[in-house]
Amino acid sequence: MDQTSSNRPVALVVEDDAAIRNLATAVLEETDLDVIACSSAEAAIATLERGDVRVALLFADIRLGGAMDGVALAATVEKRWPEVRVVVTSGYGAREATQLSSQVVYLRKPWRVLDVLVQAEHATLAAKAA
Fold it and tell me: Which pTM does this prediction carry?
């Protein structure tokens, strides 16, 4: 898990596939957000609970290794940290996406870099307004 050294808002990337996690991290590093990458929902929750980072964007895969999947992670983040913009992705179809609330943004894999950057911009603007 990466650490941030500034007071900028953070994008939290949660993906168990290292190649996709690294790609999403590289894309989001081109934004005004610092990036922390996690390989599991549990690691993401631990990061959010730390309280020393201001997470503006959660970018997570629906299918994750560990006890919690991306749908449960999205629901938990929405409930406990409603100010965080939640974006979930999946390459397996939209069946799981029907379990997401209407506030969660769903991007089908392979996602387009522009779509990720747009979501990061929305999260950045919301964090600055807060």
Answer: 0.92
**Tens of pLDDT along 11-56?**
999 999 999 999 999 999 999 999 999 999 999 999 999 989 999 9
CA terminus-to-terminus distance, the chain: 26
Q: For 40-122, list the strands marked E by DSSP.
A: 55-61, 85-90, 105-108
Query: To the nearest whole percent, how much of the chain has pLDDT over 90?
Result: 82
**Contact by Cβ (8 Å): 36, 28:** no
Those residues with Cβ within 8 angstroms of residue 73's Cβ, 6 or more apart along the chain or in another chain:
14, 41, 44, 45, 58, 60, 64
Contact yes or no for 70/97 (Cβ under 8 A):
no
Tell me the average pLDDT across 99-113: 92
Both tokens of residue 100?
């997401």
- The H or E element spanning position 37 is strand 34-38
Element spanning 120, H or E: helix 113-129
